[in-house]
Design a protein that fits this description.
Radius of gyration of chain A: 19 Å
Number of helices of chain A: 7
Number of strands of chain A: 3
Oligomer: homodimer
Largest interface: A-B, 66 and 66 residues
Order of helices and strands of chain A: HHEHHEEHHH
Strand order of the largest sheet of chain A: 1-3-2
Chain lengths: 165, 165
DNA sequence: CTTGGAATGTCAACAAGACTGACTTAAGCT
DNA sequence: AGCTTAAGTCAGTCTTGTTGACATTCCAAG
């Protein structure tokens, strides 16, 4: 495995290797979303609601603007999702104290309960995959994923990571 | 980094570590699809067309049924996408010789041209990420992704991989 | 050999979730 | 006072998923 990196013979960078990586990414992402999707299908919610709940939980008090940049959607799209979550009492929207134009978002108890249910399912699969692959593989996994992000998103990712430790 | 695996102290399996993995997966997948999406946005096509084109190129002569299992969508959903691709002369559908119910799918020259354009863009990002992370990290990346797939999809993934070598 | 069920694919209608564009309201800032 | 920013809304479109109904073809049991 040593000489795969030497000279011009970078075997792990062949088109066929890259193609396999692309397909692995596709199939793995399907697995990654499968469990939460199953839970949400019973309720009137979808993947969009899951994403909103995840990041509100991760960064409580985040503003609508922050959230839509993080999720990479328009405010109209996010608003539809947020409105139903607020109506259903899963998310609370508080007017900002410093800047009253801003709305700060928090999960209610019920919201936290659903978040727990969803992330338990998703983490269980992640944990199984991590355990099966081992810590070295996990480190590599994280490195490649990070290198694949757009620079702007890599910054957002790190900001979240550091706030969560 | 050695004692992270010893005893009960599996630091890489903490909830916080798993959560970071989940977020890495989310942000990385955004990057993963960004380049082809940009190309397709100009045409009347979307991500679904890309996926169909990718796998028809990968397994020429595949049937509609094969393809929809691979993609994990209903035949009705796939059919709409296929119809436009056939109308636009990117995909050819040939009635099966052994079983006339089946349609075997092939890319036309124009289809192959678009496939090349899309996968060049996607592979460029993948190649940059692989190069930045190095071969060891890539091996780990692939291991974790594979462990994350549903068993059925892992089988499909391997079948494709072996046919492509 | 016929007939009924299973498999394959197509057509139509609908829903979720993304988008753009135009507009309002409220608050902050120069 | 006037410009900008944050949030929310309304309307319309597009992609892509869904179900339901239907046509065609194959195969196997009577």
């Amino acid at each position: 495995m040593g000489d795969v990196t030497t000279g011009e013979n970078l075997l792990f960078l062949t088109d066929e290797q890259l193609r396999q990586g692309i397909e692995a990414m596709f199939f793995a992402y399907r697995g990654f979303t499968a469990d939460p999707d199953r839970i949400l299908a019973d309720m009137a919610y979808g993947r969009a609601h899951h994403r909103a709940i995840h990041f509100i939980n991760r960064a409580p008090g985040t503003t609508v603007n922050n959230l839509l940049i993080l999720l990479g959607v328009t405010k109209q799209s996010l608003n539809r999702v947020l409105r139903t979550l607020i109506e259903d009492g899963l998310v609370e929207s508080r007017v900002g104290t410093a800047d009253k134009r801003e709305r700060h978002l928090y999960l209610t108890e019920a919201g936290e309960e659903l978040e727990r249910q969803l992330s338990d399912a998703q983490r269980a699969r992640m944990r199984a995959a991590y355990r099966a692959a081992g810590p070295q593989a996990v480190a590599g996994f994280r490195q490649v994923l990070e290198a694949m992000m757009d620079p702007e998103m890599r910054r957002k990712y790190h900001a979240l990571k550091d706030s969560g430790t």
